[in-house]
């Protein structure tokens, strides 16, 4: 017999002894009142009435003691079930205890973060005077505009209207206590005046330190004391399903907080810089609406993980799919703009594409993920590191590469002159290469943009080609390398050695850009004129 059983039986004995004692006392009293010396009947009845409550109490005590003794004498498993029956709610009842505590804890976390973020979040307002401007809003963002707003982004040179004076509204986040603020480029683009309003109602004029259309980011600067900068988080470490808060001024309602989760990572929607920008969006279902642009997306530690940028919606309002620029992409842009006033990016000198199942089968690749090197430019960083077409980059600086855009974004986030370590797969063999990056400039990118259009072979001008063709000091445009007989270029009078400077009033630096201008002119049925340089002469050439 165990010690617990011994204790239970000892308890049972004490309880039964107490009951027996009370029963003996009751019997003694009863005998006394039935003795010959008992007082008259009236007194006896009175005494009995007085003892009725005592008898009832003693009886109840006896029943309770007996019940406890029976329960305590049961085996452990049965005893637990018997006791549970006395405390567990009946079937169908709800016990909110732990669930309610968890919800209250989460609510308390939301409150704490929202309150802590208030001093770091600002409203941004901009004013642009009436003027004719070309449409530079990315097609993806154009489709998200509320009905009726498209007219403000039409291109006057293509038959649109002149843009009237307008005011814009957005959000921003203080990233340094000395007054630097991060927001979206499209919030302040082309603005003549920019103001920010702080949580303490101070309204300050802001200087646009620099913008980066390729990531849709901009950096502002205000002169003020007692500013609180937000802490930076790790957007690479955040996972799908993690809670986040979006804070900003949707529809002009400042300090609005919405909660949601990370719904996806590494989203590329081709909506930034006409589809030619750097994208690696965090997707969230935290409500993002017009006016949230530029505001912070934070985790439950109050750390900045993204800059709210765009939504996927047919109505212009939140549909539960919002996109934020991750801090891993935004922070290098911020640092470069503050340090140089512009963004300086690394340049690899290689063309890359995604590794797909079709490509694996077609080329007999030995890996299923990564970025395939499709082409390598001579005398550029990739070639200098002995990277070759057909190599697959599987990781860079220890980070796994799953897509070509991921590799391009990472290289662009590194400063010129930086060295990166790449692990590549070459015909099944794993190799490690160190690549010393150069600077990504328009001249460097122009090496990728040659091609044929209008029946002419064109190349973006470079310092070397400009010198070769005798155009000293020219740093932009397309050089006509050769002209096909009977083609549009031939019939329009273009000659080899001509430099196309602009088309339809727009400067051109790539064949892709020229082709887009030609396509749009055809769609609208309007004539297109080129401005070309031939030797020391600039002339107009109407396309036939």
Describe it for me?
With 544 residues, the protein is an alpha+beta fold. Among the domains are: 242-340, Trypsin-like serine proteases (Thrombin, subunit H); 346-444, Roll (Pdz3 Domain); 449-543, Pdz3 Domain. Strand 23 and strand 24 form a beta hairpin. A seven-stranded antiparallel sheet has the order 5-4-1-2-3-7-6. Helices cover 31% and strands 28% of the residues. The protein contains 14 helices and 29 strands.
Helical coverage, percent range = 25-40%
- Tell me the span between the first and last alpha carbons: 110 Å
- Helix and strand content put the structural class at alpha+beta
Mean pLDDT: 80
Number of helices: 14
CATH architectural designation of the domain at 242-340: Beta Barrel
In spatial order, strands of the major sheet run 5-4-1-2-3-7-6
What's the overall geometry? Answer: globular
- Tell me the strand percentage band: 25-35%
Which spans of ≥5 residues are poorly predicted at pLDDT below 50? 1-12, 26-48, 73-90, 143-149
- Under CATH at level 1, the class of the domain at 242-340 stands as Mainly Beta
Largest sheet: 7 strands, antiparallel
CATH homologous superfamily caption of the domain at 242-340: Trypsin-like serine proteases
Radius of gyration: 39 Å
Please provide the count of β strands: 29
| CATH topology category name of the domain at 242-340 | Thrombin, subunit H
């Amino acid at each position: 017999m165990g010690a617990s059983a011994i204790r239970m039986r000892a308890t049972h004995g004490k309880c039964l002894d107490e009951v027996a004692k009370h029963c003996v006392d009751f019997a003694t009293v009863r005998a006394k009142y039935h003795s010959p010396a008992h007082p008259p009947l009236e007194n006896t009845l009175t005494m009995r009435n007085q003892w009725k409550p005592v008898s009832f109490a003693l009886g109840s005590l006896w029943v309770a003691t007996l019940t406890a003794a029976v329960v305590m004498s049961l085996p452990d498993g049965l005893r637990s079930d018997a006791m549970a029956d006395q405390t567990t709610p009946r079937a169908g009842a709800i016990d909110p205890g732990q669930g309610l505590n968890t919800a209250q804890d989460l609510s308390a976390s939301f409150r704490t973060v929202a309150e802590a973020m208030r001093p770091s979040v600002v409203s941004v307002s901009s004013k642009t005077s009436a003027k004719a401007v070309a449409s530079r809003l990315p097609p993806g963002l154009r489709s998200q505009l509320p009905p009726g707003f498209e007219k403000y982004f039409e291109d006057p040179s293509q038959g649109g209207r002149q843009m009237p004076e307008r005011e814009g509204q957005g959000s921003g986040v203080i990233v340094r206590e000395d007054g630097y603020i991060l927001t979206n480029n499209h919030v302040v683009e082309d603005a003549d005046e920019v103001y920010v309003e702080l949580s303490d109602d101070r309204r300050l004029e802001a200087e646009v330190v620099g913008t980066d259309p390729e990531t849709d980011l901009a950096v502002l600067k205000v002169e003020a004391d007692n500013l609180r900068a937000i802490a930076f988080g790790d957007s690479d470490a955040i996972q799908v399903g993690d809670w986040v808060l979006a804070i900003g001024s949707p529809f002009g309602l400042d300090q609005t907080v919405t909660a949601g989760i990370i719904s996806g990572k590494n989203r590329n929607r081709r909506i930034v810089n006409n589809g030619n920008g750097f994208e690696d969006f965090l997707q969230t279902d935290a409500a993002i609406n017009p006016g949230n642009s530029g505001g912070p997306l934070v985790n439950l530690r109050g750390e900045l993980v993204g800059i709210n940028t765009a939504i996927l919606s047919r109505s212009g309002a939140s549909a539960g799919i919002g996109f934020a620029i991750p801090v891993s992409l935004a922070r290098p842009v911020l640092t470069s703009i503050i340090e140089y006033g512009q963004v300086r990016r690394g340049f690899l000198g290689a063309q890359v594409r995604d590794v797909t199942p079709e490509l694996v089968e077609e080329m007999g690749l030995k890996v299923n993920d990564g970025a395939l090197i499709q082409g390598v430019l001579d005398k550029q960083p990739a070639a200098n590191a002995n990277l070759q077409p057909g190599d697959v980059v599987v990781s860079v600086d220890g980070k796994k590469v799953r897509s070509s855009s991921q590799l391009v974004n990472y290289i662009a986030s590194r400063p010129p002159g930086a060295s990166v370590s790449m692990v590549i797969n070459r015909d099944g063999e794993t190799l490690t290469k160190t690549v010393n990056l150069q600077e990504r400039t328009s001249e460097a990118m122009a090496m990728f943009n040659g091609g044929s259009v209008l029946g002419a072979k064109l190349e973006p001008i470079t310092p070397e080609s400009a010198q070769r063709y005798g155009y000293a000091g020219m740093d932009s445009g397309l050089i006509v390398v050769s002209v096909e007989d009977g083609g549009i270029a031939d019939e329009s009078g273009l000659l080899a050695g001509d430099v196309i400077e602009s088309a339809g009033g727009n400067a051109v630096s790539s064949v892709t850009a020229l082709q887009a201008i030609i396509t749009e002119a055809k769609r609208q049925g309007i004539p297109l004129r080129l401005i070309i340089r031939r030797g020391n002469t600039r002339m107009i050439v109407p396309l036939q």
